[in-house]
Amino acid sequence: MIGRAAGGRRRGPVVDPDAPVTRVRARLGRWRDRLLTLAWLALIWCLLWGRFSWGNLLGGLLVGGAVLLFFPLPPVTFGGRLRPRALLELAGRFVTELVRASIHVAWIAVQPGYRPRGAIIAVRLRVRTDLNLALTAEAISLVPGTLIVEVDRGRGVLYVHVLDVRGPEDLTGSRDRILATEARIVRAIGSAAELRLLTAPADPNPPADPAPPAGAVPPSDPVPPTERGVDQ
Q1: What is the pTM of this model?
Q2: Percent of the chain as helix, strand, coil, to the nearest 5
Q3: What average pLDDT does this structure show over 56-64?
Q4: I need a labelling partner for 45 at 20 to 30 A (CA). Which of 39, 83, 201, 209 fits?
């Protein structure tokens, strides 16, 4: 059915949410989202074990299915589309950063008497959907040297602990890498509206300073007031 708006302009067809076709499409969309979530949980399970095998894949599917059955997650809709070229770029850059960060952390571990300093930074993502928050947080946490401390879902802010901070430029570089990871994820699976958000102007109201963990000692070197470091 096509309606007519005020002023004689024609509107698009009115979709009845209770129509059988609409109900079937909604049900198929929910099953698609569940299958995507199950596949992601199985992938994370294999990554946690450190190698891909049929046993780990089967175990990941069983564990993921149990999680979805007994601990149902809030509905996360997927309105984007998969872009193979961007997916390959995302995978390649992730592997590169994984190897580079692993070498960096290993080098820190073998230096006698060296005490690396860490810091907690707040990064406001540009695409604040639950799916983007989850994927970006997982991608960051899987890279050695960075760890998600807290997620502010309402404001779309990730609080990230970064290792081996020597000055303000390291904090800026860490924030840029996190935003670059988000951009690669959105380019790989995001919608057209989400892609436009990547080029939107920066938020004039940055997130407040994260509070340091209890018992932490502030560093002696000056750090910009918007980013607070703590000794580890």
Answers
A1: 0.60
A2: 50, 15, 35
A3: 90
A4: 83
